[in-house]
Specification:
Elements lengths: L9 E10 L14 E12 L16 H6 L1 H4 L3 H23 L3 E2 L17 E3 L7 E3 L5 H9 L4 E10 L10 E11 L3 H19 L4 E2 L5 E3 H8 L13 E2 L1 H4 L5 H6 L6 E7 L5 H13 L6 E5 L5 E2 L1 H18 L6 E7 L1 H18 L7 E2 L1 E5 L4 E4 L4 E4 L10 H7 L9 E6 L2 E8 L4 H10 L4 H7 L1 H6 L7 E7 H9 L29 H6 L10
Parallel strand pairs: 3-6, 8-15, 9-16
Antiparallel strand pairs: 1-2, 4-5, 6-7, 7-21, 10-11, 11-14, 12-13, 12-14, 16-19, 17-18, 19-20, 20-21
Helix pairs in contact: 3-5, 3-16, 12-13
Length: 530
């Protein structure tokens, strides 16, 4: 028997389990009432000196944690997150099957497709110079399943996108609950999926409230009220257009801006924020965000407005703004002005900041909602052309008639997102299942019919042979798990994630390959000299 055992050694112990002697119980331990009387010990796997601690939750450099992920996963919180992830996926599967869906597996090696992000390409040895792509989503396959008569499909699907790392998405790969249904309207999909997602959240909410009967918010209203298409509805602040109160006023900066028809002034209410210190703090924050500042009005006891803006526009307009925003003494309002298309993102950040600073955000809930009526197209400033704004396979509201008679930038799509606490957790749409409408939709975005046939030949051909109206969505498994585990870092809910540079430090990927492998694939490298 060894003289000593160390932390994390793997051992076999023979002995007798018995009650602890009187007075030695420890109620703080799960095994506090029993002990093992050891008769023999065998070391099965001694452990070297650990590169990181596995007890406790102290901070440790991420590169070390990822390189030794097999040790990091022994940490109690991370281990529990991974077990919770498995339970959440089980819950999703069970609830989908209860709703009459059947699970299918679609191919991983597929064709390159413009889904909106860069593909991971896989060279073909058998077909020199040609490449497979890893699927950005099973979009086309699941639509083809609808053509084949499998009316209710779902899959816990791995998806691959060669994107620059982002805080809200794991680099390289992620998982989604992928869904498609035939013979449905948008309302049918909402009725099928809302109880599934609500049920999953309720099961793992640990006492937090979960929205029942989700609100439906039009995309334009979401941008207008919250400055984002993924609003955090735990924050009660709603922005308002107060342009009329500044038009022709004594505040010349705003008054001149409003002479340009597309310019507006929006107000961000700040209940309880009517102190000079808070308003100055918000102004400094805005300057740190690259803005010239953040105009404000404070309302004193008695209801009169204070601050430079109030002095410039006068008491009558100041009172009208207070009444419009439903504010009272001790409150404030902040103002952003210009072209809403340019300031909306900043306005949304300011709304979030005000809500957090004034403790208005109710952290004890999961606030779920549908965001609907997304624009079908947007104007691409870089390429100076009309582009798809979301999913190119969505049905335009108004169908073929809208595509042939309306300004493309005014067409809305049967497209929707699920949002929760400021995150987009699902996205979907009713599909454009008419071949002529599909060709027209792509034509508006600059694709010719032959290009549609070349890129989406399988789906285009399938639509010629009796395509049912169909639609679906995909919910982000990783983001849902992240929210339910109470973390904001996706690497805390994934088994073997990459770092922010899209490197797998544990396995050493991406790695160089041999000259023989490259020759077999008919590939020659053309590397930039460092």
């Amino acid at each position: 028997m060894p003289e000593k055992l160390r932390s994390e050694w793997v051992v076999r112990i023979d002995g007798k389990v018995r009650r602890r002697p009187e007075g030695t119980d420890n109620p703080d331990l799960p095994t506090g009432a029993v002990e093992v009387f050891v008769t023999e010990i065998e070391v099965l796997g001694p452990a070297g000196e650990l590169p990181l601690p596995v007890f406790g939750e102290q901070e440790y450099p991420e590169d070390v944690r990822l390189r030794y992920r097999f040790l990091d996963l022994r940490r109690e919180k991370l281990h529990q997150n991974i077990m919770t992830r498995g339970a959440i996926v089980d819950s999703m599967r069970r609830r989908m099957k209860e709703q009459g869906f059947f699970e299918f597996q679609t191919p991983i090696l597929t064709a390159s497709s413009p889904e909106g992000a860069r593909d991971f390409l896989v060279p073909s040895r058998i077909h020199p110079g040609k490449f497979y792509a890893l699927p950005q989503a099973p979009q086309q396959y699941k639509q083809l399943l609808m053509m084949s008569g499998f009316d209710r499909y779902f899959q816990i699907a791995p998806c691959f996108r060669d994107e620059d790392p982002r805080a809200d998405r794991l680099p390289g790969e992620f998982y989604q609950l992928d869904v498609e249904m035939s013979f449905v309207t948008q309302d049918d999909i909402f009725a099928a999926m809302e109880p599934v997602i609500t049920g999953v959240f309720e099961e793992f909410a640990k006492g937090k409230r979960v929205t029942k009967g989700w609100p439906r918010i039009a995309f334009a209203d979401s941008m207008r009220k919250y400055g984002t298409d993924k609003p955090d509805l735990r924050n009660p602040i709603e922005m308002q257009d107060v342009s009329d109160h500044f038009r022709g006023s004594g505040f010349k900066v705003f008054a001149r801006m409003l002479e340009e028809p597309r310019n507006q002034v929006w107000a961000i209410p700040g209940p309880g924020g009517g102190s000079r210190a808070f308003c100055d703090r918000m102004n400094s924050w805005a300057q740190g965000e690259g803005q010239p500042g953040l105009g404000y009005i404070m309302w004193r006891e008695g209801g009169e407005g204070a601050g430079p803006l109030a002095n410039n526009i006068g008491p009558e307009r100041t009172e009208a703004i207070r009444a419009a925003l439903g504010l009272k003494a001790g409150d404030a309002a902040f103002f952003v002005a210009g072209d809403p298309a340019k300031f909306v993102k900043f306005a949304g950040l300011a709304r979030t900041r005000v809500g957090e600073e004034l403790n208005l955000v109710d952290k004890d809930q999961f606030a779920l909602a549908w965001v609907v009526d997304f624009p079908m197209y947007e104007y691409n400033e870089d390429d100076k052309k009309v582009d798809f704004s979301h999913n190119p396979f969505s049905m335009p509201q108004g169908g073929m008639g809208a595509l042939t008679s309306l300004d493309p930038l005014t067409i809305k799509a049967f497209q929707y997102d699920i949002t929760c606490n400021g995150y987009e957790i699902a996205s979907g749409g009713i599909r454009n299942h008419r071949p002529e409408a599909m060709v027209k939709a792509f034509e508006i975005a600059g694709y010719g019919e032959q290009e549609v046939v070349d890129r989406f030949g399988g789906m285009y051909r399938a639509f010629q042979y009796g395509a049912p109206p169909h639609g679906g969505m995909a919910a982000g498994v990783d983001r849902i798990v992240m929210l339910l585990c109470g973390t904001t870092n996706l690497r805390e809910i994934s088994l073997f994630p990459m770092n922010q540079r899209a490197e797998d430090l544990l396995m050493g990927a991406p790695s160089q390959v041999s000259a023989k492998q490259l020759r077999e694939l008919h590939i020659r490298l053309n590397l930039q000299e460092e």
